[in-house]
Design brief:
The protein has 289 residues and is α/β, with parallel strands linked by helices. The chain contains eleven helices and seven strands. Strands 1, 2, 3, 4 and 5 form a five-stranded parallel β-sheet that branches. The protein has a two-stranded parallel sheet with strand order 6-7. Helix 5 packs parallel to helix 7 and helix 5 crosses helix 11. The longest helix has 17 residues. The radius of gyration is 23 Å and the shape is globular.
Length: 289
């Protein structure tokens, strides 16, 4: 059974235990409204029609919807002689990125924005067939110089999660480039101040690694930032209330499991290595999500 089928079945079972059947609903008696005179009708001001606020899903409902593939990339550049073996697993040459994105397009996938995915998970809002979310971590300057042109070539949106400690430094994104990404329709989220693992933070580190980066990015962009990507993809139960208190609406990780009680704060991602060709990428999306 594929992971998406397992999640859908598990969510349905959880919901069955807490949902009320139509037969259990209590009918609400109706009464006739008092008649209104013509004078009262003509003098009454029209009342505006307000859209009802969407109802957030339960954790079980969110978990059942958690089948959208989310891909995580890092530096987009050619390999260098001094790159370590590990670095070569998270560096994607531009030609490889182009081939992987073309495979998504040719395979019928539609990249969507991060807020659209979170809205789908939280409220059940519709997404196109075969949606996928593209994300880029750390804040390398190559996100603006190499990734953005490829994304624009295909007309794909993506989300970028920079560390704030590196902004405006050589080889890293500048404030102007962040604004350029934002203006191009990309989503900007936080990735901590200096990439500390959030399963190891204590005391004042929470403010430094969660609150301060959101404020810095909001100051650069001119609007709030409410999405987070965990450094190293790591989190623990202690981290989740701190993330929520700091005002993050959703957070992305790199583990294989999603927390059943707080699935919006533990959204899964996978990192496609540069060794994956298009067919291999599509096969993993089918089997992993």
């Amino acid at each position: 059974m594929r992971r998406r089928d397992f999640l859908a079945a598990g969510g349905a079972l959880l919901l069955a235990g807490c949902s009320r059947s139509d037969g259990d609903r209590v009918a609400t008696p109706t009464t006739s409204a008092p008649s209104t005179s013509a004078a009262e009708t003509s003098s009454a001001a029209p009342s505006p029609t307000e859209e009802p606020a969407p109802t957030p899903g339960t954790p079980a409902e969110i978990l059942a919807r958690s089948t959208v593939p989310v891909l995580c990339f890092h530096q987009i550049r050619e390999f260098r002689a001094d790159d370590s073996a590990y670095a070569r697993t998270i560096i994607t040459p531009p030609a490889v990125l182009t081939a992987q994105l073309q495979a998504l397009r040719d395979g019928g996938y539609t990249p969507v924005t991060a807020p659209a995915v979170v809205d789908h998970l939280q409220f059940g809002t519709a997404l196109p067939d075969r949606p996928v979310l593209l994300t880029f971590d750390d804040g390398s300057v190559t996100h603006a110089t190499a990734a953005l042109p490829v994304l624009q070539q295909f007309g794909f949106p993506a989300a970028f999660f920079p560390m704030t400690v590196v902004l405006d430094k050589p080889d890293w994104l500048s404030s102007d480039q962040l604004r350029e990404l934002d203006a191009a329709g990309m989503t900007i989220g936080a990735h901590s101040w200096d990439h500390q693992r959030m399963d190891q933070l204590t005391g004042d580190q929470w403010t430094e690694q969660l609150d301060a980066p959101a404020a810095t990015l909001a100051g650069i962009l001119g609007h709030p930032v409410d999405l987070l990507a965990y450094p190293h993809g790591m989190w623990n139960q202690e981290a989740l209330p701190h993330v929520a208190t700091a005002g993050y609406r959703a957070a992305f990780q790199l583990a294989d499991t999603t927390d059943p009680a707080q699935p919006l704060l533990t959204i899964r991602r996978i990192m496609p290595p540069p060794t994956w060709d298009g067919a291999t990428l599509l096969a993993h999306l089918e089997s992993d999500f």
